[in-house]
Amino acid sequence: MSFFLMMTMTFISLFMLFITHPLSMGLMILIQTLLLSLLLGIYINTYWFSYILFLVFLGGLLVLFIYVSSVASNEMMNFSLKMKMYLLFSIIMFILFSIFKMKNYYLFNNFINNEMNNFNEYFLFFNENKISLSKLYNSQTFLMIMMIIIYLFITLIAVIKITNIFFGPLRSFN
């Protein structure tokens, strides 16, 4: 499963080279973030961090969507011949790869499992140092966490005061 996620992320990354419209780029970044969050959840064995990562990216992309839709609202999306050919090529490769995996399941699965196990060992620094969330909120880091929470709260209040509805950077829609 994780190999297919990595392969899909690679295809989407290469597909972004051919996209010129900003809204479709935002959609590709959103899909990339969703796939990255799923992959991160699989490797860390907890989906808490990947969920927070996805929400942060989604919030940033929503702000970018508001700006881009107000600037380039009437621009049409055109698909070039290169983009159509790449999309067709990537779909064909994905289908062929899936068929190959189904036919040679044991041979392919052995190879992929060995490679993924090696990657997991490097990623998790061998299984004895898995990332644990219990180390995040303990007595040694309490002061630092409280300072970060207060800093983020003050920043939130400052951003709200700066972006007043009458003087903000966004134009009003009447």
From TrEMBL:
Its EC number is 7.1.1.2. Keywords: Electron transport, Membrane, Mitochondrion, NAD, Respiratory chain, Translocase, Transmembrane, Transmembrane helix, Transport. GO terms for molecular function: NADH dehydrogenase (ubiquinone) activity. Its main location: mitochondrion. It catalyses: a ubiquinone + NADH + 5 H(+)(in) = a ubiquinol + NAD(+) + 4 H(+)(out). It is a multi-pass membrane protein. Belongs to the complex I subunit 6 family. This is NADH-ubiquinone oxidoreductase chain 6. It comes from Pontia edusa.
